[in-house]
Amino acid sequence: MLSLDDSRWSELQHAYGDAADIPELLSQLAGLPSSENNNEPWFSIWSALAHQGDVYSASFAAVPHVIEALASAPLKADFSHFQFPAWVEICRVKKGVSVPENIAPAYFKSLARLPALVAAAASRQWDEGFLCCALSAVAAAKGQPAIAEAVLDLTPDVAGEFLEWFFER
Q1: CA–CA dist 23, 4 (Å, integer)
Q2: Would 2 be classed as within a structural domain?
Q3: How many independent structural domains does the chain possess?
Q4: CA torsion sign, 115 to 117 to 121 to 127?
Q5: Residues 16, 20, 25, CA angle at the centre, nearest 5°?
Q6: Is 1 part of any domain?
Q7: What is the SS3 assignment for 41?
Q8: What pLDDT, in 10s, does the model give residues 51-71?
Q9: Neighbours of 105 (CB within 10 A)
Q10: Tens of pLDDT, residues 80-109
Q11: Given CB 3.0 to 4.6 Å as the disulfide criterion, which of 74, 119, 136, 149 pairs with 86?
Q12: pLDDT attached to residue 130
């Protein structure tokens, strides 16, 4: 994983240019802040690293840090700790973006941790949003980006409509 004090962050890109500002945002995740109501640092992380479905070299370097924060306390982590890495992987596949070679091992190794972290969070209370993000993270980690994306939109109403459609076809 690229250290937060590594000068190579300035060589990586995000939606607004070089990613020299990303380590400071990622360092704030250690306290497991909520992403509700566009709270920081999540608002800036999402805006810079997963901007309108686009992902960047810095997105892939950030994912291991998000997952490391999640791993520190999966019972307390916010839904975005699961949603963000899943969304980065979904967008990577959809847009055909390559992960830089020097970042790829840490990126893919961190994604592989997601199913175990979902299991570690299983004893907490989950609302439907958390459930969707956790399921999406598992699907993304297991190489199923289309399912990961679909499950993010799977509210109880949508699930009911899907089941009606599925059994009527």
Answers
A1: 5
A2: no
A3: 1
A4: negative
A5: 90
A6: no
A7: coil
A8: 999 999 999 999 999 999 999
A9: 12
A10: 999 999 999 999 999 999 999 999 999 999
A11: 136
A12: 95
Q: Which residue has the tokens 């009527």?
A: 168
Instruction: Indicate whether 25 belongs to any domain.
Output: yes
Q: Is the peptide bond before 64 cis (omega within 30 degrees of 0)?
A: no
Q: Per DSSP, what are the bridge partners of residue 13?
A: 18
How far, CA to CA in Å, does 136 sit from each of 48, 147, 149, 154? 21, 7, 7, 10
Residue 21 DSSP one-character state? T
Looking at residue 157, its pLDDT comes to 87
Considering only residues 37 and 20, tell me which one the structure prediction assigns the higher pLDDT: 20
Q: Where are the beta strands (DSSP E) in the chain?
A: 13-14, 17-18
Is pLDDT of 156 > 90? no
Report how far apart, in Å, the C-alpha atoms of 83 and of each of 86, 91, 155 are: 5, 12, 15
CA atoms of 132 and 143, how far apart (whole Å): 17
Residue 135 in any domain: the answer is yes
State the first-to-last Cα distance of the chain, in angstroms, to the nearest integer.
47
* Dist. CA 129–CA 125, nearest whole Å: 11
Neighbours of 151 (CB within 10 A): 21
Look up the domain containing 62 and give its range: 7-168
